[in-house]
């Protein structure tokens, strides 16, 4: 229901209003039982605790609604939903282990601190008191009048409860995190100490230029083996992609320009060349018949109009045309239809629906009964606006009813139904009236008005610059030829042929099954390509070609690697690991050369590598060495005896040899008590951030989703 969704954001009830498609997989229960040894509809387990399809779908539904409210994409949220479900289970398990309980009274008492409620001033009265009884009443009202919205509230409540348990859990575990006086004294000492050093740095990058080092797959594997937690991975795929966009050619561009010029000044074919955009007397109808984008009757401020006309409309007269001009991949001719001040209006409404209209899904009253009821309510409110709240129980818009019927401040540009906006535009503060729309009868009361800037209604005749059939055929031919060239070839061949021909090549190396979009691609085929790559029949080296709906674009995909859940495949994380491993290999060469030379001075080390002797002051808590963060070098500076040469130190940016000249104290302000409090708070925060990760790293998590999706796709 457009108006129910568009009549302003409802901070919490809107969770039950927006219609978002949920996942619906038809899976054979018997085959699931056989596959997983689990009950049908179980997507996974966390330490034996089941994540059901219902739980997962509810969480995904919540994320999709939130994304839609914020104008964000609703696709690709499956992995986020899964992670939230896993974390919620871990929190609940730990919560129960600690003997903690979330009672009904505690839920309502703590509700005011949840972000969903705390960030909305309308949930608090003028004195700052939380309107808990009012919200309770609204929930009870939903339970009795709209069971669908009430069920969505229960889903919302479940998420809130998990957040409450998390806050209580973290508060309890972090209470024991403290800093002792002795610990703080040592930290303050390290903070104030400075070591004055001379050093020689053999830079990794400079050394590698003269002494190239190749990192093998074995080198990567050994590093990963030494850091198993860091490289623990879910199942992923390494996919090569070549994108063949059906970009309009110069002749396609010229064709679109010629077409809009004809419609603008010559005439449309439908009218036999008699009616053009210049001489038409019905702009909206002409656009409906001839434009690639529909007519928008809303008013917009100048800064929201196309850049080509934004600075011209203020001085233009009604009926003035602009263009044709190019806007992204469109040719546009604009005509100024009207201009007027964009007043802001604060209004409230009661929506009386009836059986058969867009808001009357569960209604039994007829249209005639609805009109009679709306007229009678309107007459009472017109005579006494103070009685408005008494009739909210009749409203078919529970989200606005929860806010006293308010739809907030609107302007002519607000995306409401035209009849509603027309009433606001043509009536003043205090006016009450009944307006009919496709959703029923609205009893509207205007609470306030503010004068605004000038707004403009513009008719835009638009023609898309799109690829012709000839261009699409050329793209298809090119993509088909490419896939024939690479079938059965190595991935290096796939990449090299693509690069040689200057094709749009990319290689996302760790694609998750439920991430929704492919980096560097972003088409409506992304999810299908990911599903194809994760099919259990898929093998390394498989290729396929995909057509992007409605565009003529083609994508050729190549499976370069199959990563099952576990330790990361070395080649899949080469980009991440190779610089680290390369530095370690270079460091070993440098250290071996220094040790073999038995260097006894910095000058000797500097001469060996054509490096420069440098000086710096180093601090343990802020271990910067001439701009580079080097904690090991700082440790060596305080660990070596005065006027003694350190052993070679494998740093972050190079190998260092250090000579300490002296130590000094640079006393900084701050007493012990202040530092204890600051460090305790810092430790507590760091512990809270690490606690959940630790629970997840050490949990027994079973994810059945990939198998389930594969099973569903084969039925």
TrEMBL record:
Alphabetical list of Pfam families matching this protein: Rotamase_3 (PF13616), SurA_N_2 (PF13623)
GO molecular-function term, one example from the UniProt record: peptidyl-prolyl cis-trans isomerase activity
Keyword line: Cell inner membrane, Cell membrane, Chaperone, Isomerase, Membrane, Rotamase, Transmembrane, Transmembrane helix
InterPro entries, per the entry: PPIase_dom_sf, PPIase_PpiC, PpiD_chaperone, Trigger_fact/SurA_dom_sf
Family: Belongs to the PpiD chaperone family.
Subcellular location: Cell inner membrane
TM region(s), chain numbering: 12-29
Listed name of the protein: Periplasmic chaperone PpiD
Organism: Kaistella carnis
UniProt KW Transcription keyword: no
């Amino acid at each position: 229901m457009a108006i129910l969704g568009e009549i302003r954001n409802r901070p919490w009830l809107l969770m039950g209003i927006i219609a978002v498609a949920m996942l619906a997989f038809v899976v054979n229960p018997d085959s699931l039982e056989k596959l997983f040894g689990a009950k049908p509809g179980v997507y996974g387990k966390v330490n034996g605790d089941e994540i059901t399809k219902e739980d997962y779908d509810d969480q995904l539904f919540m994320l999709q609604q939130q994304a839609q409210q914020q104008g964000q994409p609703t696709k690709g949220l499956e992995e986020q939903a899964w992670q939230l479900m896993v974390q919620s289970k871990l929190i609940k398990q730990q919560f129960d282990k600690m003997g903690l309980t979330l009672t009904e009274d505690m839920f309502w008492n703590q509700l005011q601190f949840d972000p969903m409620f705390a960030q909305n001033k309308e949930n608090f009265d003028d004195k700052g008191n939380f309107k808990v009884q009012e919200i309770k009443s609204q929930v009870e009202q939903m339970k009795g009048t709209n069971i669908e919205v009430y069920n969505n509230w229960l889903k919302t409540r479940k998420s809130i409860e998990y957040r409450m348990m998390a806050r209580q859990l973290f508060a309890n575990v972090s209470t024991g995190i403290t800093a002792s006086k002795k610990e703080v004294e040592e930290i303050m000492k390290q903070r104030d100490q400075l070591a004055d050093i001379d050093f020689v740095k053999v830079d990794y990058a400079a050394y590698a230029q003269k002494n190239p080092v190749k990192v093998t797959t074995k080198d990567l594997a050994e590093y990963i083996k030494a850091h198993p937690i860091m490289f623990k991975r879910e199942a992923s795929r390494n996919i090569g992609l070549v994108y063949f966009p059906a970009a309009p050619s110069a002749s396609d561009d010229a064709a679109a320009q010629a077409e809009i010029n004809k419609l603008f000044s010559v005439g449309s074919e439908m009218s036999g060349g008699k009616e053009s955009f210049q001489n038409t007397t019905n702009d909206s109808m002409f656009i409906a018949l001839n434009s690639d984008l529909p007519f928008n009757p809303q008013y917009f401020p100048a800064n929201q109009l196309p850049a080509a006309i934004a600075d011209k409309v203020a001085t233009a007269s009604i009926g003035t045309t602009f263009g044709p001009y190019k806007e992204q991949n469109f040719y546009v001719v604009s005509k100024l239809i009207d201009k007027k001040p964009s007043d802001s209006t604060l209004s409230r409404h009661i929506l009386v629906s009836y059986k058969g209209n867009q808001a009357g899904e569960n209604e039994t009253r007829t249209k005639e009964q609805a009109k009679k009821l709306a007229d009678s309510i309107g007459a009472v409110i017109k005579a006494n606006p103070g009685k408005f709240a008494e009739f909210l129980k009749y409203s078919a818009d529970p989200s606005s009813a929860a806010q006293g019927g308010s739809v907030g401040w609107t302007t002519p540009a607000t995306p409401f139904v035209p009849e509603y906006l027309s009433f606001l535009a043509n009536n003043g503060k205090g006016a009450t009236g009944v307006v009919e729309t496709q959703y029923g009868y609205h009893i509207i009361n205007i609470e306030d008005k503010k004068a605004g800037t000038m707004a403009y209604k513009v008719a835009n005749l638009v023609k898309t610059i799109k690829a012709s059939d000839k261009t699409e055929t050329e793209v298809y031919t090119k993509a088909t030829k490419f896939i024939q060239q690479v079938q059965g070839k190595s991935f290096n061949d796939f990449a090299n042929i693509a690069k040689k021909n200057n094709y749009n090549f990319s290689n996302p190396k760790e694609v998750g099954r439920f991430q929704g979009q492919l980096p560097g691609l972003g088409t409506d085929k992304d999810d299908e390509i990911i599903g194809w790559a994760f099919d259990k029949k898929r093998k390394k080296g498989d290729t396929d070609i995909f057509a992007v709906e409605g565009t003529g674009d083609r994508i050729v995909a190549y499976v370069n690697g199959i990563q099952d859940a576990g330790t990361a495949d070395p080649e899949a994380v080469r980009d991440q690991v190779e610089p680290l491993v390369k530095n370690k290999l270079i460091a070993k060469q440098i250290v071996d050369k220094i040790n073999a030379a038995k260097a006894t001075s910095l000058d000797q080390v500097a001469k060996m590598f054509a490096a420069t002797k440098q000086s710096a002051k180093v601090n343990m808590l802020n271990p910067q060495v001439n701009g580079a963060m080097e904690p090991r070098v700082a440790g060596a500076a305080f660990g070596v005896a005065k006027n003694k040469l350190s052993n070679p130190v494998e740093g972050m940016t190079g190998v260092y040899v250090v000579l300490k000249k002296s130590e000094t104290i640079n006393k900084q302000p701050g007493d012990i008590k202040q530092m204890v409090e600051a460090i305790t708070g810092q430790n507590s925060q760091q512990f809270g951030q690490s606690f959940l990760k630790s629970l997840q790293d050490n949990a027994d998590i079973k994810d059945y989703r990939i198998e389930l999706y594969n099973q569903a796709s084969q039925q």
